[in-house]
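General statements about sequence and structure are easier to judge against a single worked case. No coordinates are needed to read the tokens, only the vocabulary itself. The sequence in question and its structure tokens are set out directly beneath this paragraph.
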Amino acid sequence: MGGFEGHLFPGLSLFFYGLYHARLVSRALICNYPIQYPPRRPWSKGRWARLQQIYYVGFVKILSACILVAQELHSVHGQFVLISKIYHQRNFLYRKQWQHLTLYMTFFLSGCVDVVSQNVLPQRCAALEQGAQALGIFLIVPLMVSHVQDSEGVELQSHVLLTQAMFLLSLVVIAELWAPNMPQLRVMKAFFYMVTGSWLMQIGFMLFKPISGHKWMDDDKNDVVFVTTFFCWHVAFIAILMIWIYGFSFLWYCYIC
């Protein structure tokens, strides 16, 4: 996730995935649907009917992971290797890039599990999908902790807050394995997905393309303090967005549909 695009594209993916879950949980609460994923719809005859019955979320995950991997490899200059041999010494190279690729591969595998469970198996296995998702989110936390070891100032503070949000998200998705039908967990999962995604995009703007046109200064305590302030604004904005999604869904399913 180096560079502006390396923060923007993953942030967009996480934010829209959280938006998707916010819509699902709002519809479930309003229409009194089960909070668990809906069962697989029966196949019907006809070419277009089958296309309409395919679940596309897993395919979107796979496509997003492939785009992120391609973007990461494109940003690497030189030969992309894991270990180099120089004068009988073995040195690990591109440590951050390998961390990014490990993270992207977890989402790729989660997408593959979703595709198999939703479109291949005779009966959808939601527990398998949630387990793959929890594994991917759980692996993000140690990667992010080691990712900021050589950071300081604004970059360090912003990534510490990102790690905090991801840690809370990992707790929610792990707890969801034991309580899949609890609406509070589904709401918190959608909330933390959107917080993580929006804040990741904000980090890209702060570090590489500040909106004010002036670079954030690591030696300025005011800049470091305002990073936390902006994070709190993101949390408040996502909370308001969740309320708006629920209100719009209520109007849609109760009065329009």
